Amino acid sequence: MSQSDNQYTKLRWLLTIVGLFLYVVDIWTDIGLALKYFRDKHFVWTGLTLAFVLAGLLVTQIFSYAWYRDDMNNVLINPEGKPTLSGISKGGLAVLHLFGVGIFTRYCQLLKQGFKVLWKTRNDHTGDVHYKLFCMATDLSMLKLFEAFLESVPQLLLQLYIVLGHAECSVLQYLSMTFSFFNIAWALVDYRRCLRRSLRHVKEMPSGLPTAIYLLYKLFTITSHILSYTLLLILSTYTTIALTVLWLLGTTWTHCLQTNFCSSRGLELLYRAVIGVILTFTFFNVKGQNTKVEMIIYYFFYSLMHIMAPLLLFFFKPELQSTTFLLTVSGLICGGTVLGLVCLVLYYLLLHPRGTQREADEVDGLGNETETTLRISNFLQP
């Protein structure tokens, strides 16, 4: 493993700032778009745009505060039982998260501690110090992943539906979709790399080709999913009922797996509901187990949907049969599906890191040991 894989480098620190920039700009372009819809008296679009922003913010604040609270009560992280964590009391943390800035607190702490380790002192720290920085980054990347699938992904679906189905085009809409897309891409790769780096028994995802192929697999398949859902929404808004059913199926499957990711029953149920949303748009290894069969079934089903969506629109919307729009989107769906599955096969056959112990392909509900590992020393004392 190279030094850049062993250590939390200056490049990774700088990329954290890039991630923060994408997060902020994505949210603010969506808020600006909601204001535009309100001025144009599109109140339903205004409500939906804001609802996705608020959903992402609310859920990430809930998990962030719960993890801080768990760290404060954890004897490994807070052995002296201090009523504060890095100078912030439980009440102070509650206020910060109530005002929606909990995730920014995590960014500030990671950047501050990373700056201290990488720039203000000699580069002679033990591996444990860098490992703790990766654990802090992993908590943050998990929150970013939740936010991406609760806000950026449905936001991209909504805006594509408005642009393609209602011919409502504006610069702000394209900016919103662009930053949503980049935020999704960033969240996927950042989470994948941080999770594998924070688990000592799992090999790090190598930089370069493996990361690029994994990113392309995710982006191609997710984009095909979103475009297929868009066509079905254009065909009928009752497609929202079908999407709700898919979410319920994903949530039920996660529940049947009996995940043990959170410290409380209520938070675990919320976690399973969030995973249900993610499963609506991409495959997610919930238990860190061999899921080859489940993945094949998942992508077989969605490939059928990618074929059926353009055909249904072709037969039931005859006015669109000769339009460039339908041909273009259909081509993007089919091409994205094929390329995504090719990248999927290439990655898992040739490029997926192999460890001597169990592999965690995506996320783990591996129990309390892993939960503690992911959040060891979220705050390094200054």
Keywords:
disordered C terminus; mainly alpha; 382 residues
Short characterization:
The chain is mainly alpha-helical. The protein has 13 helices and two strands. Strands 1-2 form a two-stranded antiparallel ribbon.
Written description of the protein model:
This protein has 382 residues and is mainly alpha-helical. The protein has 13 helices and 2 strands; from the N terminus they run αααββαααααααααα. A two-stranded antiparallel sheet has the order 1-2. Helix 5 (102-120) crosses helix 6 (127-166), helix 6 (127-166) packs antiparallel against helix 7 (171-198) and helix 6 (127-166) runs parallel beside helix 8. The longest helix has 40 residues, at 127-166. The relative contact order is 0.12.
* Secondary-structure element string: HHHEEHHHHHHHHHH
Number of helical regions: 13
Name the shape in a single word: globular
Major sheet characteristics:
2 strands, antiparallel
Structural class: mainly alpha
Task: Give average pLDDT, whole number.
Answer: 82
Radius of gyration: 21 Å
Cα distance, first to last residue? 29 Å
Major sheet: arrangement of strands:
1-2
Oligomer: single chain
Q: Determine the strand fraction and express it as a percent band.
A: under 5%
The share of residues in helices is over 70%
- Provide the low-confidence segments as ranges: 356-382
Topology, number of strands: 2
